[in-house]
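Summarise what follows for lecture notes:
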Amino acid sequence: MRKQIPLIRPIIAEQEVKAASRVLRSRMLAQGAIAADFERKFADYIGVNEAITVSSGTAALDVALKSLGIKQGDEVITTAFSFIASANAILYQRAKPIFADILRDTFNVDPQDLQAKITNKTKAVLAVHLFGQPCDVAAIREICADHDLSLIEDCAQAHGAEFEGRKVGSFGIGCFSFYATKNMTTGEGGMVTTSDAAVARDARLLRDHGQAAKYVHNVLGYNYRMTDVEAAVGIVQLEKLDAMNAKRISNAHYLNQHLTLEGATLPRAARGTTHVYHQYVVMLLREATDRNRFAAYLQAHGIGCAIHYTLPIYQQPLYQSLGYSPELAACPVAEEVAQSVLSLPVHPALTHDDLVYIVQTVNDFEGGL
């Protein structure tokens, strides 16, 4: 029987099942004491004063932008290369996403191009720690300080990642996703992290219909609450996060040591960072490898793979319809990367035999890479 290795496999064990069952048996299912406990534990883990549970990572981004007062006519600079939610949350404010190009070696936003895109309409930077690799936080914070800009960190793929010994999500307003594929999961769900008391207060209002007290609604809010069932799973997952990340890092190191991909770039942690390898993303030289043929070969041999992501965000049909022409939004490195990347399995459920099989299969690809 052919070996099957999925690209992603959530780690859900009996502890998570029991935690969810206890909440279900309690009949206290909505946001309550368990969600509050999850907030405290997550804030302590990240190293911030406040953490606010929400219903998704996208909701976290929306709440963060709203808590900063981002509005129509404002500009927010973000990366051209990410999942579309990073930019769509800016559109939710009727503000304008401005796309900065990326660095080829980290896939994260290029601070120099970011700085070049600042105008008098720029109010914030929404930086993404893509694939588990922290972006250049020091350079971006300096730019934000120089231009009086707020910093939002999209940490949806970087739970536990560190920049110079400090957890991402603690430098600006952190936004986390707990979707099923993330390094830790609650199924759906998200978290906003901050040490700014005003931002935390506004985030709590916004996620619960603007309620300052029971049935007293101070502002226009939303139903962005997390259930206690999800929070119970999240508490267990948080306890396992460092161990799961350590396994991802170990798996990535093994692949880096044993893959012989001629003409390909393997992912490595930037200096001063802890990369938690949400995805293990290789970049293939198009002159050396037919990416589609290689992906089909992997799938035929039972190895899951995917392209993250096929287009820079501004080339998506939605953004083309909004007038993001190539002349206005060209980010050549992001365009090159989108045509070259492929993700291989790195998740913590991989066994040593799985890793050996992945390496042998990849290295046996006809003609090499």
In short: The domain at 241-363 is CATH 3.90.1150.10 (Aspartate Aminotransferase, domain 1). The chain has 13 helices and 15 strands. The chain has two domains: 14-236, 241-363.
